[in-house]
From TrEMBL:
GO terms for molecular function: glucosamine-6-phosphate deaminase activity; identical protein binding. Pathway: Nucleotide-sugar biosynthesis; UDP-N-acetyl-alpha-D-glucosamine biosynthesis; alpha-D-glucosamine 6-phosphate from D-fructose 6-phosphate: step 1/1. This is Glucosamine-6-phosphate deaminase. InterPro entries: Glucosamine6P_isomerase, NagB/RpiA_transferase-like. It comes from the Eukaryota. One of its GO terms (cellular component) is cytoplasm. One of its GO terms (biological process) is glucosamine catabolic process. It catalyses: alpha-D-glucosamine 6-phosphate + H2O = beta-D-fructose 6-phosphate + NH4(+).
Length: 106
């Protein structure tokens, strides 16, 4: 059995019916060329990825960290996904959300 297939089975809990039959792969440069990028991160199992994406430096080991350089990137995360973030970071972004809501109302 190919290693990628075995990894997918592990990722999807061993349920072959949950493994996608098709996938879309987009390179980092293609994403960086986009006018706007929205990244949705949910669940505590993605908390470390969110931490590496926004609190650590840009790294080839965490390609989503390149979004720090994007001119219009938006990260949307639920509470569980923020578990690895520093308290200051969470407060900062929550404060921005309140400011954003005020601006949108006009």
């Amino acid at each position: 059995m190919r290693i990628q297939f075995r990894l997918m089975l592990v990722f999807f809990g061993g349920d072959l019916s949950k493994v996608p039959t098709q996938a879309l792969t987009v390179g980092v440069q293609t994403v960086m060329d986009a006018r706007e990028v929205m990244i949705l991160i949910t669940g505590s199992h993605k908390a470390l990825a969110l931490h590496q994406a926004i609190e650590c430096g840009i790294s080839h080991m965490c390609t989503v960290s390149a979004m720090q350089m994007h001119r219009c990137a938006m990260f949307i995360a639920d509470e569980d996904a923020t578990l690895e973030l520093k308290v200051k970071t969470v407060r900062y972004f929550k404060g921005l959300m309140g400011h954003h809501r005020t601006l949108v109302e006009f």
